[in-house]
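Researcher: Predict the fold of 30S ribosomal protein S1.
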Amino acid sequence: MSEELTTQQETAAPEENMESFADMLASQENAQVRIQAGQKVQGTVIEVTDDSVFVNIGAKIDGIMERKDFVDSEGNVDVAPGDQIEAWITHVSSQEIKLARSMSGSGMAAIENARDAGVPVDGRVTEACKGGYHVEVLGKTAFCPGSQMVAGNPESLIGNTYQFLITRVESRGRNIVVSHRALIDRQREASLAALLNDVQEGDIVEGKVTRLASFGAFVELVPGVEGMVHLSELSWSRIMKADEVIHPGDTVQAKILKISKEKGRDGREHTRISLSLKAAQGNPWDDIATSLPGAGAVVEGKVVRLAPFGAFVELCPGIEGLVHLSEMSWSHRVNRPEDVVKPGDVVRVKIKEINPENRRVSLSLRDAEGDPWADVETRFPVGSKVEGKVESQSKFGLFVSLAPGVTGLLPEGIMRSTKTAAQFQKLEKDAPVTLEVQRVDPVARRITLVPEGAQAQPKEPREHKERPSKRGGDDHSWRQHQKTASSTSDSDMGIMAQALQKAMQNKQ
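Model: C-alpha cells for 30S ribosomal protein S1 follow.
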C-alpha cells in the first residue's frame, strides 16, 4: 500500500509542477516582464533556426517567432543573434510564448484573434471614403474613421501600409472597424508609464526636438511621449522665436519643471510634462566671475533691445549690460539709441561696472573706442596745420570738427582780423576748412584755431583761464555755442560744448 501511494505521488508530481509553473507564469510573480497577449515587448535574439527565431524577453521561457517575419523581399533573413527587436505577444501558455511583428493569416478567425488579443495588424489604405478610409486587413476590407488615422494628406496615405488595432467586428465580418490612433495611444501610455516610473520633477532628461510652435517647442523624451518647453524656458537670452536657439532633430538636455494631469478637448485626462532648457544649463549669473572679465575690459556683444534711456547688449547667454545714452558717443549728444545702434548689431563695449547682487552690468560704447581727448596734444600739436569740417558758425566764431569727439574754435575776433574773414563767414555746415592750432587745453577739452600763417601761442597758463579775455573770453563763446547747438540739433553739439556746459554749471 505504501509503495502504491509513493508511485501515485511520483506520477502526479510532474502534472502538479506543470500546473504550478503555469500559475506562476500567469501571475507573473517570478517573471521579469509582464506577460499577456497583446503586450509589446523588447528582446534579444538568441537563436535563428530554419523556421523559427528565439528571443529572450526576460521571462522564464523564451519567446518564439516565425522565421518568415524576418525575410525580406529578396528572401534574405534580416536578423541575427544579439539583435534587439520589438514584437507583440500573440499567445501565452505554460509551454510557450508566441511573438509576432503583427498578426498574420487571413479570414475571420485571424481577425477575431487579433481583436481579442489586442495585437496590431498590417493594413493597406486602399481609398478614401466618407468619414474615413477603406483599409485591407487580413484579407478583409475594414473601415478606419478619419479621426483614427495617422496624420497626413489623404492623398499621400492611399497605397501605404500602417499598423492598426481591430476595435470592432460586426455582422460576421461585414463591418470591421480599425484604428491607427488607438495603437499609437496604447504605445504612448506604456511609454509614459515607464517614463514616469523612472523620473520626477527636477530631474534632467534628454530628448529630441520634434516640432516648433509660436509659444515654444516640443521635445520627445521616449517614443510617443513629448514634453513642452515654453518660449521663456528655451534660453537665458531674450528670444522671439524658438528657431533662434533650436531646430527639429536637435538632441537637448532639459529639466522637468512640472508633471500634471489636464483634461483635453476629447474629455480624457492627459499627462502634461513642462520642461526647461535654460534650467538644465544653470543660471549664468551664478558663474559671472568666470564668464565675464572684470571692469575695464573691452568685449564684444550683441544689441538685443533698445529702451528710451539706452541699449541692452548681450555679453553671453543670459547676461545683458546697459549702455546708457550718455555712454554712446564722444562726438555728439545722443537722445535716441536707435540713432547709434539697432537690435542685432555686434558692438565693442567697455565694462564699467558689474553688480552681481542686482544683476546689472554697466557698459560704454564710447569708452571702448577710447577718449578722443586722451592724446589730443599729440594728434593736434600747437602750430600744426589741421583739416576739419565746419560744425557750426555763430557770431562768436567758427566751430570746426577735427575728429570724432574733438571740436576746435576759430574765435570771431581772430577771424575778422584776417584778410580772408569773408571767406570764413561764407562757409556752411560740413564745409572743409584748413586752419592752424594756436592753443590746446586737454583738461578743459578746448582747441583754439587760427587761420593759416597766424602766429601760434603756447599752451594757455592755468591762471590765465581765471581772467576774462579782452574779447569776452573763449568761455563766453563756448557757452553760446552750447546754447545754439542745443536749440538747433543735438547732432550738431560737440563733446567740447557738453563738457563746458557741465563745468560752468558746477562753477555756478
